[in-house]
Specification:
heterodimer; A: about 400 residues; alpha/beta; B: alpha+beta; seven-stranded antiparallel sheet; 14 strands; about 25% strand
């Protein structure tokens, strides 16, 4: 089958190995039971060949896309080695936007296609528009095609759709259908941070091919979201996800320690466990990850191409999600700071830098910007009222006291 | 969690949220009436961008930190956060009865001049009109971008009309007149050759230059060579030994990516052919330098020879 631009659909590689993955229902069903007999395959790694990322079908588009996608929200102008390496491993789902780095992400992709014109057909190219009206969408697409030096994009997303009614706009739909008919876009979709209502609405429409939404291990018990995902799945809408880390934990809690131990005390390995947790949900075809350097890319490729999440890792991350449910700072300082009298949200974030990212110098530098008087108050004042106001019931007093000891 | 537990939990959270929101609103009202402020250096809640000329006034203000920057700029937030982003203040400034025309000015506090310079240089658009020793530039659609000390500014017209563009430009001119843009030296840039350099092409690659995770703090620029463009780069390290080791590691990285060393080193400069392009890599004292993705070996050699001929940092 050839599309309007003359390419065969099979130009998008689908050679990656496939494997059996636990269904969502099975995944939830095993929580707490410790039972997880997962299939294991190690394509490439043990055989000494190049690891390739497994692929999954992207809804009714019929296109096989890699489970690991490259979120190109950085200047790609100097990253052609990373981009070449990504293609070698089958990471050919490239997600960008005209707004990323003032257009220099798209311009860098254009430079890449200039250097390697034969590679365009191997890439499943995704970009976005903030516009909703036909004129704005047309201008946005024209600019993207020009910067990326291509005649078409594979998937065009309405960026940041948080109001479900946008998906009913006739003008938007009409423009998308004309753009598809002209061959300048192959598929159309949207991205959202308000997933449940937008996914539910998308499932009712018949013109959207793909949805990209925030999804991570902290959301696995959101039954409303799970139902919305099911509706999309049944409607044939392909699903891509972002924000897999679910960042925010601040304490060196037991669950986090277990995760770290399982990951060889490497925070980057914890990320790979979190990534594998999302891959457990076979309804999601592709998880978008930013990979600015080759070392990070290879680490994630190996995670995708090797053993799925192990039973012990899975138990640990589920336990972690449960135990840290109330240790996740939403950053809503307006709720606790009037009672606390100190910049709670900032200090919580600095603790996250220190404990979550291992950026101790940076967190100490930031903490030193607070006056001595405020630091003294953190160490000794009563923060019980602020804790009562915290929707996550964070132990604010304990954490502030720890910060005043550890971040000096 | 069982389905029942999950349903109960969500209902409880919603109820608590309402109570907490009401309590927070009451506390905020009390604090406002009492004129109470906490005694920290926390940024004032209402940032004043100044320069409200031609009857224009601030009609909306917003502030963001690393945790919620994505609420303002979506997926682009990672770019700033990974470069050390501290805080963002934005203001919409409008004139006229209905506050139209209007524009938005956003000030990114990056914590240091080098970080602000890095995010600025990585976003320079080709064909822009530079000003103030390349610390800022205007683009034809009316937007302006510039660095002032540790802050990176974006000034974007609210619409494509002449009035909004004019208002935005007026604000930038006023700001530059009232605040001489604070600049710190980026000494590495003096090592890069001046001739054949593509205008506005100097960039500070804060991390993972050319896809190599260990190569950070790199200053680079694009050059026209007879056969096509190439990039020259320099990075100052902590010691000569570190520079030597990093240069060797970068060559190994290029080879691992599929490159091959092309002939013997010439006066300490090693050449790698990768994807039909040439890299040249060397170290001198504390400096790692070279040429990336040159169209020919000769272009790489010639451009590398020009690095460091000027003053050393």
């Amino acid at each position: 089958v050839r599309d309007r631009s003359g390419r065969r659909e099979t130009d998008v590689p689908s050679r990656g190995p496939t494997r059996t993955v636990l269904s969502r229902r099975s995944f939830l069903g095993t929580i707490g039971t410790g039972v997880a007999a997962l299939t294991v395959d190690t394509p490439g790694l043990l055989a000494g060949t190049l690891p390739r990322v497994p692929t999954r079908a992207l809804g009714r588009t019929g296109v096989q896309v890699p489970m690991l996608g490259a979120g190109m929200d950085f200047d790609t102008s100097y990253s052609e080695i990373v981009m070449r390496e990504a293609l070698r491993h089958g990471v050919n789902y490239w997600d960008t936007s005209p707004s990323y780095v003032n257009g220099n992400s798209e311009a860098g992709i254009g430079r890449f296609f200039d250097l390697f014109p034969g590679e365009r057909g191997r890439v499943f190219l995704v970009t976005k528009s903030d516009s909703r009206d036909a004129g704005g969408l047309e201008g946005s697409l024209t600019g993207s095609l020009s910067r990326m030096r291509t005649s078409y994009v594979d998937l065009y997303l309405l960026n940041e759709v948080n109001d479900p009614s946008v998906l009913d706009l006739e003008e938007t739909r009409g423009w998308a259908e004309r753009a598809k008919a002209s061959g300048r876009i192959r598929f159309v979709g949207f991205s959202t941070h308000n997933a449940e209502p937008c996914l539910s609405k998308a499932a009712e429409t018949r013109w959207l091919d793909v949805a990209m939404f925030r999804y991570n291990f902290r959301l696995f018990d959101d039954l409303g979201l799970s139902k919305a995902i099911d509706r999309c799945r049944q409607a044939g809408i392909g699903l891509a996800s972002m924000k897999f880390r679910g960042l925010g934990p601040m304490g060196r809690d037991t669950a986090h320690l277990r995760l770290l131990q399982l990951a060889g005390n490497r925070p980057d390995a914890v990320d790979r466990i979190k990534l594998k947790a999302v891959w457990m949900d076979e309804r999601v075809s592709c998880v978008l990850v930013k990979m600015m350097d080759v070392a990070t890319l290879r680490a994630y490729v190996e995670a995708a191409a090797s053993t799925p999440i192990g039973a012990e890792e899975k138990r640990a991350i589920e336990e972690y999600a449960r135990e840290t449910r109330f240790e996740y700072c939403d950053g809503c300082g307006q709720r606790c700071e009037p009672a606390a009298g100190v910049p709670v949200a900032d200090v919580m974030r600095w603790l996250m830098y220190d404990r979550g990212y291992g950026e101790s110098e940076k967190s100490r530098e930031l903490f030193r910007s607070v006056s001595e008087e405020t630091r003294r108050r953190m160490a000794s004042a009563d923060f019980s009222e602020a804790e009562r106001n915290c929707p996550r019931r964070l132990p604010i007093g304990r954490l502030l006291a720890e910060a005043s000891r550890e971040l000096v | 969690l069982t389905r029942f537990e999950a349903t109960w939990y969500r209902a409880a959270v919603k109820t608590r949220s309402l109570v907490v929101a009401a309590a927070a609103a009451a506390a905020a009202a009390v604090a406002a009436v009492a004129g109470w402020r906490w005694s920290t250096e926390r940024r004032p809640p209402e940032w004043d961008p100044g320069c409200e000329t031609d009857g224009a006034q601030v009609v909306k203000r917003e502030s963001f930190g690393p945790d919620d920057l994505a609420d303002k700029i979506n997926g682009h937030a990672d770019f700033y956060v990974s470069t050390g982003f501290v805080h963002l203040d934005c203001a919409v400034i409008g004139s006229g009865a209905d506050r139209s025309p209007w524009f938005e000015v956003c000030s990114y506090d990056m914590g240091s001049f080098r970080r602000a310079f890095s995010v600025f240089t990585r976003q320079v658009r080709q064909g822009a009109d530079a000003f103030d020793d390349d610390l800022g530039y205007d683009v034809p659609d009316g937007a302006s971008f510039f660095v002032d000390g540790s802050h990176y500014f974006e000034v974007i017209p609210g619409s494509d009309d002449h009035q909004s563009r004019g208002l935005a430009r007026s604000w930038v001119k006023c700001y530059r007149r009232e605040h001489r843009l604070r600049q710190e030296e980026v000494p590495e840039s003096r090592l890069l050759p001046a001739s054949d350099r593509v205008p506005n092409s100097v960039v500070l690659l804060y991390q993972a230059a050319f896809g190599f995770d260990r190569l950070d703090g790199v200053v680079a620029a694009r050059y026209r060579t007879g056969a096509g463009d190439a990039t020259a780069f320099v990075s100052v390290r902590g010691s000569a030994a570190e520079a030597t080791e990093l240069a060797d590691a970068f060559v190994s990285f290029l080879v691992e990516a599929g490159g091959t060393e092309d002939g013997p080193a010439e006066r300490g400069v090693r050449f790698v052919r990768l994807h039909d392009m040439w890299d040249a890599v060397f170290s001198r004292d504390r400096i790692v330098a070279g040429v990336h993705a040159a169209p020919t070996r000769e272009a790489a050699r010639s451009l590398a020879a020009g690095i460091g001929r000027a003053e050393r940092p």
